[in-house]
Request: fold
Amino acid sequence: MEPGVTQDAHPIRVVALYRFTTFADPVAIKGPLEQVCRAHGVKGTLLLAPEGINGTVAGADEGIDQLLAHIRTLPGCTAIEIKESRAPAMPFHRMKVRIKREIVTMGQPDIDPLDTGHYVAPEDWNALIDRPDTIVIDTRNDYEVALGSFAGAIDPRTRTFRDFPDWFREHRDALLSGGTKPKVAMFCTGGIRCEKSTAFLKSEGLDEVYHLKGGILAYLEAVPVEQSRWEGECFVFDERVSVGHALVPGDNQLCRACRMPVTPEQRSSPLFVAGVSCPACHAERTDEQRARYAERHRQAMLAEARGETHVGAIHGRHHPD
Reply:
């Protein structure tokens, strides 16, 4: 449990989960999964695809236990990856189970996400990325990297994960110009994107491909700050917006208009208006849109003052792309 978080004050259990496995018929899985969630008051989003399951859900402990027990009966899901946190109130308004082509979109249908690179435990990550023959690549999107990354990591400056294959192919010669094949170490928030990015690099003919098991979040939780190679904060896909070492919530907020993180420095800009706009999106919105956002924010604040959750509130990005 996160520092300072008690179960009494935070009765809602939030679980992020994923598993790459083969679902021959995702549609057949969808109905029973929805029924379990509804029966036990679980809300959030789950994505199903022929390649597996991914999502974030929340509920009371008993409800989450029932859902996880059901998921673990699905093909290949006995050892499903989960990450847990607590919340003082339900962060989602409804339960959605969606059928998708991919559980995390890369747009490379021919790769096998089960043929991944070598996992590296958080405790062993420093030794790998400190090696002079290791290339370290941040596979996250530009708005995530802007908040923090590992020292010396390459930032592909991609807007979505779908852009990563084109970026690698464009820069492949420069990255691998040393004459010998280097070790390539990649990382992402919780590990799911690196399952695919390492599989992609292997399909491109690279063998020495590694990824951080459990992602940045596992590293920040396991590695003491005095030994850390991490700089800044890590964007997360929930209401915390960002976290630092020991997963302590950071100083960033979420722009409710574009759902991008807003730093303390950006909040001092005249283009930042809480609930309405930020420097990243102000020029992309019309006066009519900003007026609509302002009214939504006003209603959300009134609901919060009454101890309620406004149905138009945006709680964050719950699935990376």
Q: What stands out?
A: DSSP finds nine helices and 15 strands in the chain. The mean pLDDT is 90. The longest strand covers residues 12-20.
